[in-house]
Structure formats: C-alpha cells, structure tokens
C-alpha cells in the first residue's frame, strides 16, 4: 500500500511539474500576472540583493514593487533620478516632485528612498535598486 501511495504521489508531482512548465496555453495577460507574482516573490526573499533598472519612466506598483531602496548608478557615467508623487509634472497635492538627484558615485549611492504605489520614477540612465534592510531594533 505504501508503494502505491508513493507511486501515485510521484505521478501527481510529475504531472504538476509538467503543467507548470507548459506556459504556451496561457494568455498574454495571464503570463504578465505570473511574471509579476514571480518578481514580487523573488524580491521578498533575503537572497535578493539588487536589480539594475534601465533608463526610462517606471511606475511603482505595477512595474517596481513598493519598498525602501538605496539607489546607485550602474555605470561610471552616473544617472539622474526624479521621483514624482502621482504623475510626472503633477504639482497638485500628493503629486509633485519628491526627489531629484544626480547619482555619480557607484559605491556611495543615495541612501534610503521610499517608493510608494502610484509614484513615478524617471531614470536618466541605468540605476541599481537595492532593498534597504531594517536595522532590527
């Protein structure tokens, strides 16, 4: 009986792995949702240290997870960083420019920046985002 249960369990695991590996049947939106889930889970793990974000306009929430980050330029050329409250060039309440900085030192970077849902991050060059670890007290 134990052998039969072990065999059934092994078959279920193999079938589950085969289903998980077959992504061709998923829609584009389902694949995007799955990618977002995987990215959020990876970033929440202690093994995750940093990610390089290319130059461009990025939205916190759908594209970059909320959190506390240190910012570093990924090249010796440096990079500009503009963080907007709700939308680019929106100077209304909760809109406005939160941070405007030029990152020039790859080793020092820029301390602790809180990215919140709805913020707009505009990068004028690739920037390394590294999660800030709490001090534990």
Question: Can you offer a commentary on this structure?
Answer:
The relative contact order is 0.21. Helices cover 27% and strands 31% of the residues. The strands form two sheets. The protein has a four-stranded antiparallel sheet, with no helix packed on it. The protein has two helices and eight strands. It folds into two domains: 48 residues; 83 residues, Jelly Rolls. The chain is α+β, with helices and mostly antiparallel strands and 137 residues long.
Quick overview of this protein structure:
With 137 residues, the protein is an alpha+beta fold.
Topology:
Blueprint: H1 2-21, H2 28-44, E1 51-53, E2 56-59, E3 67-73, E4 79-84, E5 97-103, E6 110-115, E7 120-124, E8 127-131
Antiparallel strand pairs: 1-8, 2-7, 3-6, 3-8, 4-5, 4-7
Average pLDDT number:
80
CATH-defined fold name of the largest domain: Jelly Rolls
Shape by Cα distribution: globular
Helix and strand sequence: HHEEEEEEEE
Q: Please, how many helices?
A: 2
Going across the major beta sheet, what is the strand order? 1-8-3-6
Secondary structure tally: strands: 8
The major sheet is characterized as:
4 strands, antiparallel
Helix content: 25-40%
Distance between the termini: 52 Å
How many domains? The number is 2
- Low-confidence spans: pLDDT under 50, at least 5 residues? none
What is the CATH first-level class name of the largest domain? Answer: Mainly Beta
- SS-based class: alpha+beta
The name of the CATH architecture of the largest domain is Sandwich
Strand content: 25-35%
Radius of gyration: 21 Å
